[in-house]
Amino acid sequence: MSTLTAVEHRPAADVLQDLRSPTLDVQHIRMMPDGPSGSTPLHEGYLAVKGVHDLLLATATSAVSTTRPTVLASQKPQLAKGFLDQVRLGQTGRGSYVLRVETPLPPPDIEPPVSSREVLLHLYQATSAAHDAAARSSNSDLTPFIERVGDGVSANLCDALADIGGQRRSSFDIRFTWAPALPLQLDTPAVQFDPPTIAALKARAKFLRRLPVTEAATVIGRVVDLHRTPMDRLGKVQVEGVVENAGQRHEVRVTMRLAPRDYDLALSAHGAQHPLRVVGELRHTGRQFEISRVSSVEIDPPPRG
Question: Which of 93, 184, 243, 260 is most exposed, with the fewest beta carbons within 10 Å of its own?
């Protein structure tokens, strides 16, 4: 027990509580507001709880969708709402002020419409990506946020994270512990947000909401790279070929995130060295092209000899 408390920098009672909850995935959101330890100003606490709610809803919406928009639709998918119905606030932990967010694993004989573990892994990926983008962005270079949209970064997610810091932009961190009944063979260290990072998230959320609408486009070309992580149900694919949009053709390399079935088609096209045709919306960051809101994916017939 002493080793665990030292490694996780948490009181023994909190570690023991997790060990006694073998079927719960838990996030510990440790806030560091001014004032006595174990308390927080009422309005700051309200904003933090709202931020946690909005963070989980944004993450679930992103996780169950086949697109990665910069701004999520106001009408959230029923699957995302269903996930949120499972989540509970546990007893606050010891420390500056620690919110305990609990999500139970499904019973062994039930396969839920959406995997809570997949949503929470996406939460880790998206919050880590937002933190990384905030660290790399500046007033003259905002592309790090656009480049991480495929990892779940959105205006909604950035606003939610900023809300956890409250009006005073107090530091906080998010620590992930995984249900012992379903061990995770993946390192997920705590993600820490300080006042400058929180300020950057709030500012970049406004920037993401002002991005112009993308245009419909078709890309036809060869698959040159594929990658899918255990945290994301969408696989990252790069296609080198021709993009057709607004009556123009460009030879470029395009990145896209594809749902499992479409990703398998891309994998087959890559193996057979056949062209892939993808229809969606084109986003140009200045550094790269990305196809989002994919509407169709198909393997083009190989050229006739």
Answer: 260
How far, CA to CA in Å, does 290 sit from each of 158, 249, 293?
21, 15, 10
The predicted model gives 51-73 an average pLDDT of 91
pLDDT at 87 over 80: yes
Delimit the domains of the chain by residue range: 10-209, 215-299
247-292 tens-digit pLDDT: 778 788 999 999 999 999 999 999 999 999 999 988 765 556 788 7
For residues 228-246, give the mean pLDDT: 86
**Tokens, residue 30:** 């440790």
| CB neighbourhood size of 270 (10 A) | 17
Distant-in-sequence, close-in-space partners of 48: CB < 8 Å, separation ≥ 6? 29, 31, 40, 99, 163, 164, 165, 166, 172
State the chain's maximal CA–CA distance in angstroms: 77
The pTM (predicted TM-score) of the whole model is: 0.74
Q: How far is CA 173 from the centre of its chain?
A: 16
Distance, CA of 34 to CA of 289 (rounded, Å): 44
Distance from C-alpha of 217 to C-alpha of 233, rounded to nearest angstrom: 24
Residue labelled with tokens 């990145």: 255
- Give how far the C-alpha of residue 297 lies from the chain's centroid of Cα atoms, to the nearest Å: 23
Domain 215-299 of CATH type 2.40.50: yes
CA geometry: angle at 298 spanning 236 and 270, to 5°? 55
User: Residue 75: how many CB atoms within 10 A of its CB?
Assistant: 7
pLDDT of residue 7: 56
